[in-house]
C-alpha cells in the first residue's frame, strides 16, 4: 500500500500536532499568518525529515522554505538526490 501524499501528512501534522485550527491547503501561509511559531517551525522541520528521510540544515528552516505546504514540497523535491 502506498503512503499518503506528503502534503496530506504535513497537513495532518500541522492540524493535530501543532494545533492549527484552520482549513489547511497547500497554499495557506503557516508562519506569516501566525499559525505556526518558531518552535512549531522546528517541530515541522523534524517531522519532514522523519517523513522524507532527508536532512534539513538549520539554515534552511526558514519562512522561504516552510511557510506553505507547497513550499515544503518544493524544498523536499529539490533536496532529494537524483
Sum up the structure in keywords.
82 residues; mainly alpha; Non-ribosomal Peptide Synthetase Peptidyl Carrier Protein, Chain A
Describe the protein.
The protein is an all-alpha fold and 82 residues long. The chain has a single domain, classed as Non-ribosomal Peptide Synthetase Peptidyl Carrier Protein, Chain A. It is built from four helices and no strands. The longest helix is centred in the middle third of the chain and has 15 residues, at 38-52. It is globular and about 35 Å long.
Overall pLDDT metric: 95
Q: Provide the CATH topology.
A: Non-ribosomal Peptide Synthetase Peptidyl Carrier Protein, Chain A
Number of strands: 0
Unreliable segments of 5+ consecutive residues: none
Spatial separation of the terminal alpha carbons = 24 Å
CATH secondary-structure class: Mainly Alpha
Sum this structure up briefly.
The chain is mainly alpha-helical and 82 residues long.
Write the layout of secondary structure elements.
Elements: H1 6-16, H2 38-52, H3 63-66, H4 69-79
